[in-house]
Amino acid sequence: MDAFMDMLWFKILIGVQHLKNLVDIIVSPLNALGPAVAIFAIAFAAVLVTKFLTKIIKTKRYQQLRQDFEYWFNLRQDALKCEDSEKGKQLAKNIDRAQLNKAYYDYFFEGFMLSLATKFLPILVLLAYVNEAYQPANLLQLFGQDYIFKFGGDGAGATPVGAAFWYVISLLLIYICWAVVKKRFTKSAAPRKSPHPIGSGA
User: Fold this and answer.
1) How far is 52 from 58, CA to CA, in rounded Å?
2) Half-sphere exposure of 13 toward its Cβ, with a 13 Å CA cutoff?
3) What angle do CA 45, 51, 55 make, to 5 degrees?
4) Which candidate among 46, 70, 102, 106 keeps its CA 20 to 30 Å from the CA of 10?
């Protein structure tokens, strides 16, 4: 068993190294634009990957659990609409105890695990890459300075910004811009109501 785990861990390390080398090749042209631009591009790629994975990866179990949850939730809502309010509340409690609570927790847990795989894992993997590839020693060798940029000017009181911190800030900026653009696009794409009803004499 120990030999198998050692071999598996060794293969994982080899795979991680190959992945790092591949990302190095992809990112190296961006380094000509400076570390801030390169890391921002990596953060943007992380967001694109998470959006893509979130859209395409939906396990059959997750879909089934969602259907189960929606079924029992809708049944509970119907029970609350019963003319006899006390009877409706009792039916709703019975549904909660019998099925809905379990359906909700199963659905929530499966969704949480999917989120870890599709949203957080790519971001954390690329964060680890940024932290390794743009550590101070590498920054000094590649760009002649051991920081991304300084916040607050170039004086003695300026605060140097590291690679990992800039990566996180880049993610926040990208997600904010993504939400704003999506909101505006959705608003502009929504059908506009005609100011005059069809067939009016105006």
Assistant:
1) 12
2) 6
3) 145
4) 46
Dihedral pair phi/psi, residue 161, rounded to 5° = -105, 125
The count of structural domains within the chain is 1
Q: Which domain holds residue 54?
A: 32-150+159-182
Q: Residues near 107 by Cβ (< 8 Å), separated by ≥ 6?
A: 62, 65, 66, 68, 69
Question: What is the distance between the alpha carbons of residues 81 and 189, in angstroms, rounded to a whole number?
Answer: 36
Structure tokens at 166: 């800039």
Residues 6+ apart with CB under 8 A from 76: 92, 95, 96, 100
For residue 114, give both structure tokens.
């999917």
Tokens matching residue 79: 């029970």
**Does 94 map to a domain?**
yes
Q: What angle do CA 48, 32, 165 make, to 5 degrees?
A: 55
Q: What does the block give as tokens for 8? A: 């598996």
In 3-state terms, what secondary structure has residue 178?
A: helix
Note the pLDDT tens digit of each residue in 79-136: 777 776 777 777 777 776 777 778 778 878 888 888 888 888 889 889 988 998 899 9
